[in-house]
Design a protein that fits this description.
heterodimer, A: about 140 residues, about 0% strand, B: about 210 residues, Arc Repressor Mutant, subunit A, 9 helices
C-alpha cells in the first residue's frame, strides 16, 4: 500500500513512473513443485520429532494390559474348579434318602414294625422327630 | 533444481487469518507455516530470482528465506508486517551472497548520492514518451538486463516499490535505511532503467 506524499517529488515524474509500470508488468517466475517439495523436506528435517511418551504411558501398553487382564479373568471363570454340581447332587441324594427313610419309617410305624435303622436313628438323634404328613412330602 | 516445471498458485490470506497463522507459527506449527509459504513463496521467489541472477542459487536462497523465517519465527515481534519481515530476510540473504562473492553492492555509479543525485533528479528526459512504448518481449529483455547490471541496493528498492507495491516506509523498515535513501535509490534505479531503455530505443530507430 503506497502512502501519499504531499510534497512534490521527482519520483512523480510521469516518464519515471512509466518505468514503475513496466516493472510491475514484468512476467512472474514462480517456484516449481520440485522447489516446494525440496523446501518441505528441508522444513521437515528442522521440525523436531514429537517426544515419545514413556512406555508405561503408552495407550497400546494399557490397552494390551487391560485386554490380558480381561482374558485372564474370563479364563479363570471358565476353567475354575466347580464344586457346586457335586454338592447339588449330594444334596439331592440326601434329600431323597431322608424322604425315603421317612416314608419307610412312617409306614413301618403305622404297621407297628421297627427296624435296626430306626433304632440306630433314634439312638443317634434322639431329639429328631418327624411330624410330616403326605401334603408336606408332596411339597418336597 | 527445476525452475521451469509446473508452478504453484499463490494463495493470499486475509489479515485476520494471517495473524492467527503467525501465532501458530510462533509455536513452531509446521502446518501453519506451510500456509504462510503458500501465500508468499511466489513473491519471495520472484524477488530473489531478480536479485540473484543464477537460477539455481536463487532457488536455494528463496528456500533459505523460509528456512530462516521458520527457525526464527519466535523472534518475530510483529512490529513490521510479516511481508516486510520476509522480504527483509530475503534482501539480507541476497546482500550477504553478494558480499561473499566479493562484489560490493555500491559499485554501480548511479548508486552515488549527494549533488550528482540531486542534479540527475532535476533533468527530465525529453526524448521519453512512455505512451508510445509498448512492453514487448524484447523490451522485457532489455529491462531484465538493465536490472541485472544494477547494484543490489538500487534493484531491491525498485523491485520492492514497483513490483511488490511496498510503501516507502515499509521499504525503509525492510532494508533498514532512511525513507530519503529509499526515495533517492528508487529515483536512481528508474533513471538507470530509463537510460537503458532509451539506448535500446535509440538503437532501434537507427
Amino acid at each position: 500500500m503506497k502512502k501519499h506524499d504531499p510534497t512534490p517529488d521527482p519520483l512523480d515524474r510521469e516518464d519515471l513512473n512509466q518505468i514503475g509500470g513496466w516493472i510491475k508488468d514484468l512476467p512472474e517466475e514462480e517456484p516449481s513443485l520440485a522447489w516446494r517439495a525440496e523446501l518441505n523436506a528441508r522444513l521437515e528435517a528442522l521440525t523436531p520429532a514429537p517426544k515419545r511418551a514413556p512406555w508405561w504411558r503408552s495407550r497400546l501398553v494399557w490397552s494390551s494390559t487391560a485386554s490380558l487382564a480381561a482374558m485372564g479373568a474370563l479364563a479363570l471363570f471358565v476353567l475354575r474348579p466347580s464344586p457346586t454340581p457335586e454338592r447339588a447332587d449330594l444334596g439331592g441324594l440326601t434329600a431323597t434318602a431322608i424322604v425315603n427313610a421317612h416314608v419307610e419309617s412312617v409306614t413301618r410305624h403305622d404297621l407297628g414294625l421297627a427296624t435296626a435303622t430306626d433304632l440306630k436313628a433314634d439312638q443317634g438323634a434322639p431329639e429328631l422327630h418327624y411330624d410330616w404328613d403326605v401334603v408336606d412330602l408332596d411339597l418336597l | 533444481m527445476s525452475i521451469g516445471a509446473p508452478v504453484l498458485s499463490m494463495k493470499r490470506t486475509d489479515p485476520a487469518t494471517e495473524l492467527a497463522l503467525i501465532e501458530r507459527c510462533r509455536r513452531q506449527d509446521a502446518e501453519a507455516f506451510a500456509r504462510i509459504v503458500d501465500a508468499y513463496q511466489a513473491r519471495v521467489f520472484g524477488f530473489v530470482r531478480r536479485m540473484v541472477i543464477d537460477a539455481d542459487e536463487a532457488a536455494d536462497i528463496a528456500q533459505e528465506v523460509f528456512i530462516r523465517a521458520y527457525q526464527s519465527f519466535g523472534r518475530f515481534d510483529g512490529r513490521s508486517s510479516l511481508r516486510t519481515w520476509l522480504f527483509r530476510i530475503a534482501h539480507n540473504l541476497c546482500v550477504d551472497r553478494a558480499r561473499r562473492l566479493g562484489r560490493a553492492p555500491e559499485r554501480t555509479s548511479l548508486d552515488a548520492g549527494g549533488a550528482d543525485e540531486e542534479a540527475a533528479m532535476d533533468i527530465p528526459d525529453q526524448r521519453w514518451d512512455p505512451q508510445t512504448i509498448v512492453l514487448n518481449d524484447e523490451l522485457i529483455s532489455v529491462i531484465e538486463s538493465a536490472l541485472s547490471t544494477m547494484s543490489e541496493k538500487l534493484r531491491s528498492v525498485l523491485l520492492l516499490h514497483d513490483k511488490e507495491d511496498f510503501a516507502y516506509d515499509e521499504i525503509a523498515q525492510a532494508l533498514d535505511v532512511p525513507i530519503g535513501t529509499v526515495k533517492s535509490r528508487l529515483f536512481l534505479a528508474r533513471a538507470h532503467l530509463q537510460k537503458a531503455v532509451g539506448t535500446y530505443l535509440d538503437g532501434e530507430t537507427l
